Amino acid sequence: NFRNILLNTDSNVFSLIAPWGCGKTYFINNLIKIMEEDSINILYNAWESDFYNFPLIPLLVELLNKLENSYEMTELEEDIKFVKGIVKSICSKTSFQAGLNFGVINCSANIDPSKKMLESEYLELKNLIKEFRNKLKSIQERLDKKIIIFIDELDRCNPMYTIKTLEAIKHFFGIPNIIFVLAVDKTQIENAVRTIFG
Predict the structure, then answer these.
(1) How far apart, in whole angstroms, are the C-alpha atoms of residue 63 and residue 14?
(2) Among candidates 12, 9, 52, 6, which has minimal Cα distance to 136?
(3) Long-range pairs for 86-90 at CB < 8 Å and ≥24 separation?
(4) In sequence order, what DSSP letters do the residues of the chain get, joined into one string?
(5) Cα 169–Cα 171–Cα 175 angle in degrees, nearest 5
(6) In angstroms, rounded to a whole number, what is the distance separating the alpha carbons of residues 186 and 191?
(7) Would you place residue 93 in the very low, low, confident or very high pLDDT band (cuts 50, 70, 90)?
(8) In which region does residue 158 sit, left (phi positive, over 0), alpha (psi from -120 to 50) or beta (all else)?
(9) CB contact at 8 A, 125 and 90
């Protein structure tokens, strides 16, 4: 039933909720096996990556690695290189990373009296994110299959990484037919949010 929902949905994010030890990982692994022919499935263990400061990078590495190793690269090579270039540009914007870290944003990069607003770092980032989404959408359409990213063990990560992973999904994705399935213990996610925000 869940397979049918995922293959016929317009939604972008689902939560598979159960307490620790109830078989979420087992369920996901077997679901991926029965969906092998139907969709492009990526399994991302967030807990194994929470040493990394910027969760967008491991998420994209898993996605692009799957595409590079599973499909004829002559068709997708240029698109994948383009996506990598955009992500590199996004990561080079230190004020954006500081924003994700709840640090101080460099306002001078956004409000410079000598420059037109079109040159502000904010608009530049906004346009980069739009380009990123458009290119991923184009890749998905060319493959003509839904891309489903299963995120496991998010509730075991340190609270800041949990929040930043959810933020990365919100800010960078929201693309038709690219779906996230979060296998989580809802209580632990709530605790992570409470730890950061009170």
Answers:
(1) 18
(2) 12
(3) 86/128, 86/131, 86/132, 86/135, 87/56, 87/57, 87/60, 87/132, 89/128, 90/56, 90/125, 90/128, 90/129, 90/132
(4) -HHHHHHT---SEEEEE--TTSSHHHHHHHHHHHTTTTSEEEEEEGGGGTTSS-THHHHHHHHHHHHHHHS-HHHHHHHHHHHHHHHHHHHT-HHHHHHHTT----GGGT--TTS-GGG-HHHHHHHHHHHHHHHHHHHHHHHTS-EEEEEESGGGS-HHHHHHHHHHHHHH---TTEEEEEEE-HHHHHHHHHHHH-
(5) 70
(6) 9
(7) low
(8) beta
(9) yes
The pair of structure tokens assigned to 17 is: 């909720």
Tokens of 182: 């979060």
pLDDT tens digits for range 100-154? 444 444 555 555 666 666 666 778 778 888 898 899 899 899 889 999 999 999 9
* Residue labelled with tokens 């037919």: 177
Q: Is the pLDDT of residue 98 over 80?
A: no
Q: Which residue has the higher pLDDT, 177 or 105?
A: 177
Q: Residue 178: beta bridge partners?
A: 147
pTM: 0.83
